[in-house]
Amino acid sequence: MRKLIYGMNVSLDGYIAAPGEDISWGVPSDELFQFWSDQLRATDLTLYGRKLWQTMSSHWPTGDQRPGATPAEIEFARRWRDMSKVVFSSTIDKVDWNTRLVTGDAVAEITRLKAEDGGPMDIGGPTLAGAAMRAGLIDEYVLATSPVLVGGGKPFFSALDSWVNLNLVETRTFPGGVTLTRYETRR
To answer: What are the residue boundaries of the Bacterial bifunctional deaminase-reductase C-terminal domain, all occurrences included (predicted)?
Structure first.
């Protein structure tokens, strides 16, 4: 059975984006970017909701060809482009870059994918992750918390039907006061 991991940069008050989809407060340091790149290297499959897919696919397919791209960005872009991805959406009809589109029941498909043999899966996008959280499918949460209060926007966590108990498995500090915390779901 595969492990499902939900992780993103998050503000101290719990948002992944400020109002207007502003993520400028969460630009990672080189060290934090390398952490996320290492996470990508260890992932067999990434699951995206439509909005995060559109954000990622607008930048990373050619991220290694952009003027001034760092070696870490070049490596990340190549990994991202080559890795297997699944996008869950009922409003788009085409995806590229080693990606499969699922238009049906996301929870049923994620459940099926988790039951397969293979390495870890990442899930991205708070709406899709919220559905997986409510279904009890997420095994690990990774939060890179920036020391900023944005006051509103898109929350990392969605409303839940019941509590999810967690065990802290790692804490780490990055430049700029960003604190990484990893939690496993207590089952």
So the answer is: 2-179
